[in-house]
Amino acid sequence: MELFSLHGKTAIVTGALGLIGKKHCEALAMAGANVIVADIDSFSAKQFAQELGTGHYGVGIDVTSKASLETALDEVLANYDSVDVLVNNAAINDMFENPAMAAELSAFENYPLGAFQKSLDVNVTGVFLCSQVFGAKMAAQESGSIINIASTYGMVGPDQSIYRNQQGEQIFYKSPAYPVTKGAIINFTRFLAAYWGNKGVRVNTLSPGGVENSQDDFFIQNYSAKTLLGRMAKSSDYQGALLFLASEASAYMTGANLVVDGGWTAI
After folding, report:
1. How far is 41 from 168, CA to CA, in rounded Å?
2. In 10 A of CB 126, how many CB atoms?
3. Which residue of 38, 73, 168, 201 sits 20 to 30 Å from the alpha carbon of 46, by its own alpha carbon?
4. Residue 102: per-residue pLDDT
């Protein structure tokens, strides 16, 4: 188990207050890391860091602002000696406030340019900037692990049929922004791995499948039927994979995409 230990390490998780983000933080804390809970909501980030226990720290960040990230790095280094793990988890996944309009607005022909650009800013530029600011510190100290959170939809096209209800009505379309941005992250991982390999910085992708989170029954059933394990993920199902990538257990692994999707992309 010593291979998975992160004692004495400092780990930053962006988008840390999300459903999976909190589980990432909990896993890193259980492995002994000092966890930096980084999210746009500074107050809640600090509150959740306290809930994790002693040694953890909450910080407000805007992943689309280099100045915000540099301020956060200074704050981290004022309290900790190094930056050892970066989990690029912050991302936008389209939500439409009016369910009656969701199918129309999410259809590719009508999808708003502003929504596409916002996803690019957070999901791609945000990962670029976080890696540039926090990863540069890792490169300078010649050690570190960057984990970019992508998705099965970064590898395969969305199956729009799973968003149809029992009556065959298309309730929603998976929009182009999420697959485009998550696909970009996977290749950005390869770029960084090649660029910083000689600096001792490992960079890998973790591609999760969908997490069950009070969705409509028809969607849960449709999604589950496409996985080999016959279910959606639990929010805790990615903790082991995250610790593997963060720790010395994956010491000879970089530039890779670790797929944890219940078999969704296997067939």
Report:
1. 39
2. 25
3. 201
4. 87
Distance CA 131, CA 248 (A): 20
Specify whether the CB–CB gap between 148 and 206 falls below 8 A: yes
Task: Report which DSSP code applies to 249.
Answer: G
Q: What is the pTM of this model?
A: 0.96
pLDDT tens digits along 146-194: 999 999 999 999 999 999 999 999 999 999 999 999 999 999 999 999 9
Taking CA atoms, 162 is separated from 30, 83, 224, 264, in Å, by 36, 41, 10, 13
Number of domains in the chain: 1
CA atoms within 13 A on the CB side of 216: 11
d(CA 70, CA 215): 37
Q: What is the pLDDT of residues 51-85, one digit of tens each?
A: 999 999 999 999 999 999 999 999 999 999 999 99
Alpha carbon distance 176, 108 (integer Å): 7
Q: Which range of residues forms the domain containing residue 78? A: 2-266
Closest of 213, 196, 227, 246 to residue 95, by C-alpha: 213
Query: In b/e form, how buried is each residue of 185-200, taking b as 16+ CB within 10 angstroms?
Result: bbebbbebbeebeebe
Yes or no: say if 58 and 37 are a contact pair by the CB < 8 Å rule: yes
What CATH number does residue 22 fall under? 3.40.50.720
Q: Are 222 and 162 in contact (CB under 8 A)?
A: yes
Which residue is associated with the tokens 């910085």? 201
